[in-house]
């Protein structure tokens, strides 16, 4: 999917739109926002860089939001949630990190203040789902109410999360096939790393399900979401529920895979030790006899007999055969 490109990290306003009574959009600039020019529109969507000092200053001084709301939007560590606050909602949602050179399981956060006439979204790292919805707005393919935009963002975040977890599921299938293939040798070190990645996603996807369920449950009473918006949110919540079950299944499979890999390695080690033990048992009598006859002392039996060496060799061979027969009789080999 083609997505719009966000400005550099130094820009406080990554993009913004003002919407008139008919829902038609007008792009906004940071200067217009600073001068209050966005106030003439019926509804506004501002997508800000959370790490920008200018954006933080505007939120505290000119956004019209109370200090508690701004602090919640700017705090460093968050988990997915949706909470009613006054006439709007504080919403934190997570999505896969699809930025170049990043790990997809290092989920990015999209924070939102959703009010009737103002939608503020913030991110520290680029969130492609936000630029997806931006393109829908520019192409006129989405309703521009606050509820519709929030539902669209949730839908796009869920779309991309599905792709990541389907890839995890395929990766688990591949590891299972390698373990079942006797000719394949799997690197055991990849399994703990795979499980860590799965757990990192699981840590946030479960509360994300609760956040979406909260919006579905309380959204109708707030008046912020239309029936169509709630339908999209309910669909996103159902898909997240399925993904939660999928990530639990992948987590359990990753644990079983690691245990099977350890068991397979242990069996290989035990088999090698068993072979060494058998060899030691076979050659122990030979080592004892040759050690005894190898001492440099007088009185060694057969020292002057020309057939003594051959006799000793035959006796040692019979000892080996007898030891092997005994081990076979005991079903050790």
UniProtKB/TrEMBL annotation:
InterPro entries registered for this protein in UniProt: CorA_cytoplasmic_dom (IPR045861), CorA_TM1_TM2 (IPR045863), MgTranspt_CorA/ZnTranspt_ZntB (IPR002523)
Gene3D superfamilies: CorA soluble domain-like, Magnesium transport protein CorA, transmembrane region
Domain of life: Bacteria
Pfam families for the chain: CorA
Family matches, as PANTHER family: CORA FAMILY METAL ION TRANSPORTER (EUROFUNG), ZINC TRANSPORT PROTEIN ZNTB
Membrane topology reported for the UniProt record: Multi-pass membrane protein
GO cellular component: plasma membrane
Spans traversing the lipid bilayer: 273-295, 307-327
Compartments, record wording: Cell membrane
Family statement: Belongs to the CorA metal ion transporter (MIT) (TC 1.A.35) family.
Keywords assigned by UniProt, alphabetized: Cell inner membrane, Cell membrane, Ion transport, Membrane, Transmembrane, Transmembrane helix, Transport, Zinc
GO MF annotation terms: cobalt ion binding; cobalt ion transmembrane transporter activity; magnesium ion binding; magnesium ion transmembrane transporter activity
UniProt protein name: Zinc transporter ZntB
